[in-house]
UniProtKB/TrEMBL annotation:
This is Copper resistance protein D domain-containing protein. GO terms for cellular component: membrane. Pfam families: CopD. The chain crosses the membrane at residues 50-72, 84-107, 127-148. Keywords: Membrane, Transmembrane, Transmembrane helix. It comes from Trinickia symbiotica. Residues 48-147 form the Copper resistance protein D domain. It comes from the Bacteria.
Length: 152
C-alpha cells in the first residue's frame, strides 16, 4: 500500500474513532447519568457538551469525506467493490443525518436553553437522541461493510 493510502486510511479510522466513540459516550454514558438531573441543569450541560462535540464531528466528517473519496478513487470509483460503495452510501446517509442534527435540531436546543423553555429543549434533546441512535446503527453496518470489503 502506498504512503498516501496509509495516511488516508489513518485519517479515515481516526475520524471514525472520534465520531463513533463520541456517540457511544453520549448515548450510553452521558445520557443515562443525567437522567435524574433537573432540566435546568441538564439541558444547559447537554447544550455545552454537544456544542463542542458537534464541532469535532464536523471535522471528522470532512476527514472521512476527503480520505474516503481519495481511497475510493484508488479503488476504481464507481467500479469499486460493492461493499465499498455500500460504505460510501451509508457514510453519506450518516452525514446527512448529522447535518440535520447539527443545523436543525441542535439550534432548537440552543434556543430553548437561551429562552429557558425546558419542555421545548427536552423534546429537541429526545429527537437528537433518536438521530444519534440511528447513526450508531448505521455506523455498525458501515464498519461491517468496510471489513466485508476486504474479501473482494
Ligand atoms: C463518504 C463516505 C466514505 C467513503 C467514500 C469511504 C471509503 C472507504 C475506502 C475506499 C476504504 C478503504 C478500504 C480498504 O482499504 O480496503 C475505507 C475504509 C474503511 N472505512 Fe470508509 N468510507 C466512508 C465512510 C465511512 C464511515 C462513515 C465509516 C464508519 C462509520 C467507515 C469505516 C471504515 C473502516 C472501518 C475502514 C477500514 C476497512 C479496512 O481496512 O478493512 N467509512 N473507507
Amino acid at each position: 500500500m502506498s504512503i498516501a493510502m496509509n495516511v488516508a486510511l489513518f485519517l479515515h479510522l481516526a475520524a471514525v474513532a472520534v465520531w463513533v466513540g463520541g456517540m457511544i459516550f453520549a448515548q450510553f454514558c452521558l445520557r443515562p447519568s443525567l437522567a435524574d438531573v433537573s432540566p435546568q441543569l441538564r439541558l444547559p450541560l447537554i447544550e455545552a457538551v454537544f456544542g463542542r462535540f458537534l464541532t469535532w464531528v464536523g471535522v471528522a466528517v470532512i476527514a472521512l469525506l476527503l480520505s474516503g473519496g481519495f481511497m475510493m478513487a484508488r479503488f476504481g470509483g464507481s467500479h469499486a467493490p460493492w461493499p465499498l460503495t455500500l460504505m460510501a452510501v451509508l457514510g453519506v446517509l450518516m452525514m446527512l443525518n448529522f447535518g440535520h442534527l447539527r443545523f436543525a435540531v441542535f439550534p432548537r436546543i440552543r434556543r430553548a436553553v437561551q429562552a429557558q423553555k425546558w419542555p421545548d429543549g427536552a423534546r429537541a434533546v429526545d429527537t437528537m437522541r433518536r438521530l444519534v441512535a440511528i447513526n450508531l446503527v448505521l455506523a455498525v453496518v458501515t464498519i461491517g461493510a468496510a471489513v466485508y470489503s476486504r474479501g473482494f
